[in-house]
Amino acid sequence: MNFIQRLYCRTFQCCFRIAIPWLPYRKPQTITQLEQLPEVLRREGCRRVLLVTDQGIVRLGLHQSVLEVLNRHQIEVFCYDQTQVNPSVDNVEQALQLYRKHDCQALIGVGGGSSLDCAKGVGARIAQPRKTLSQMRGVLKVRRKLPPLIAVPTTAGTGSECTLAAVITDPKAHTKYAINDFPLIPRYALLDARMTMTMPPFLTATTGLDALTHAVEAYIGRSTTRDTRQAALSAIQLIFANLPQAVANGNDSTARKNMAHAAYLAGLAFTKSYVGYVHALAHALGGMYGVAHGFANAVLLPVVLRGYGSAVEKKLKDCAIAANIADTTTSPHEAAQRFIEAIEAMNRQFHIDTQIPQIRSEDLPYLCAHAAREANPLYPVPVLYSAAELEPFYRAVMTKEEK
Asked: What is the mean pLDDT of residues 355-368?
């Protein structure tokens, strides 16, 4: 990246960092039990709600417990259950039509990040009916209050229940972009570990590593605050202490509860301090090939951390201490290596491959350009890369045949 581009990016990031204390960040009100949901809706004056979820949640029957609780309290629920793994513009528009058809008054997102982001997208379209989702991509383009939005995460990873971002895919343009604005922060977050109990092991692993990526990228970036640093390190500690057990025994209520809390903390950290190139690279893969976001993050995280080199060693030492794999006497270089190797060891333990087979050599220019456009200048990354400089990260996770 040339000097002018670097200067522009760092100036933009510096201004944003200075503005953080004056921006209207807020935490969602947390609910710890599903049975509290009807009272929340009554308090908001809502008798008809749209539940946004996906077919995976329907097959597992996780949405049924929400429906039963609300139906017992005479709250009408209309269900949109066609959300894709990477929620699309079409998903949002279909759910919006259902919301309007039944004159709904609130939104409930039930599922992983895809369902929650789809619900946020619907809320954004309700708030700004004359704007398309594409017109709201980027930062501070919504600017209007959403209807009451309740996030019910069934995975412990995305942090969408407390973030200001909705990530949407446009399948026609083969792009994936984020809409970032404060009204998108859900008004309520239901953190009931029972909702995550049926999550299969591999999904538990990849969503947990998604949460780890949120925490690490928020911590090593250049726009941290005392609160975000504390939240990120707490999330890292909880993930290393609980993710292996949650994967091995999905019925371990303590591990599930701690992972739900870790995902929430990581979400609080990155919604203020943002993420980095791991996410930008992963989003491009989701838009082009539909690669699951948590899986892409898990594969790319150790590769990008190694690429940053000495620029992140001191901060990775803090992460390693939080993970209980280093102490204050360990050198920053050694601690950073231990931390990266620990992530790779978890990937092996959870049978997460080191390669992403969908990547094609001929697509690299587009993928790199998309990732660079997303990250620069918004993400306060520890090291700045141009589109061309991002290519080695993709090559590192390509199959041998494509290389």
From this structure: 96
User: In the Cβ-directed half-sphere of 270, how many Cα atoms lie within 13 Å?
Assistant: 31
> Does pLDDT of 335 surpass 70?
yes
* Three-state secondary structure call for residue 323: coil
Residue among 135, 183, 178, 356 nearest 275 (CA): 178
- From 334, 342, 352, select the one nearest 202 (Cα to Cα): 352
pLDDT of residue 312: 98
Q: What is the pLDDT of residues 160-184, one digit of tens each?
A: 999 999 999 998 887 888 899 999 9
Report which secondary-structure segment, H or E, holds 31.
Answer: strand 29-31
CB-count burial class (<10 Å; 0-12, 13-18, 19+) for 362 = exposed
- Tell which residue, 78, 80, 34, has the closest CA to residue 53: 80
Contacts of 389 by beta carbon, 8 Å cutoff, 6+ apart: 1
Question: What is the average pLDDT value for the chain, to the nearest integer?
Answer: 95
Q: What are phi and psi of 60, to 5 degrees?
A: -80, -15
The span from the CA of 324 to the CA of 336, in Å, is 13
- CA quadruple 351, 169, 120, 140: dihedral, nearest 10: 120
